[in-house]
Amino acid sequence: MKELYSGAHYFISGFELIAQPGLKRFVAIPLLINFILFAVIFLIFKHFIGEFNAWFANFLPAWLHWLSALLWLLFFSSFLLFFTFTFVAFSNILAAPFNSLLSEKVERYLTGQSLGEGSWFETIKDIPRVIGRQLTVIFYYLPRACLLLILFFIPIVQAVAALLWFLFNAWFMTLTYLDYPTDNHRISFRDTRMWLKQKRLCGLGFGMSVLITAMVPGLNVFVMPAAVAGATKWWVETKRKVG
Predict the structure, then answer these.
(1) Sign of the alpha-carbon dihedral angle for 131, 136, 141, 146
(2) Cα distance from N-terminal residue to C-terminal residue, the chain
(3) pTM for the whole structure
(4) What is d(CA 16, CA 14) in angstroms, rounded to the nearest whole number?
(5) Which domain range does residue 172 map to?
(6) What is the number of other CB atoms lying within 10 angstroms of the CB of residue 217?
(7) How many independent structural domains does the chain possess?
(8) How far apart are the C-alpha atoms of 211 and 223, rounded to whole Å?
(9) What are the distances in angstroms from CA 124 to CA 23, 27, 234?
(10) Are 7 and 231 in contact (CB under 8 A)?
(11) Pick the residue with more confidence: 35 or 105?
(12) pLDDT tens digit string along 128-181?
């Protein structure tokens, strides 16, 4: 429980970090990307559900029109899941260069040491590499997620499938955001996974906190920069203890 709490604490501390003077301006663009992408996905999904609702209502007798209200309830619950497990991946790809820069500035804020020249030219030059690294994380996730989804169709195993799905996605959240500070130090994705496996419970505590907060409307917009900052703080403090 101590390790789980420690992981959750690092994520919560990320909200405090992104509000610090000197770091706020590096949060602005990831927040803007988050907000725009969230709004676009919401409106698109709402449009298609609305069209389906109108089409579906034409086939219902008058005494069954109350089912349309259930359809809107399904819309909100479906969107919540859609956002949590899909939106995060897209937003991290689009905001990857800015998240990498935010992670670098958070580490500098915590340690007082720069990771490099810190010029905009260096940041722009690193964009393909940073985006490619996030794509590597997603390609790592997709086949494992598909295999895990099969469990939902196996009798008896279905009872634990939902729990395993939640834990797996919590692990993925941690791996996604921890990848920013480790990639800034040119640590390979494989070595990042090995490092995280040594801190499973702390990683699960961090990821579960991210996942649960991502389901809270309004607050979920701030999850990405807070998770980047929190994961960076976790990485920095762990390195200090090891050193």
Answers:
(1) positive
(2) 25
(3) 0.78
(4) 5
(5) 2-242
(6) 12
(7) 1
(8) 9
(9) 19, 17, 26
(10) no
(11) 105
(12) 888 888 888 888 988 988 888 788 777 777 678 778 888 888 898 899 999 999
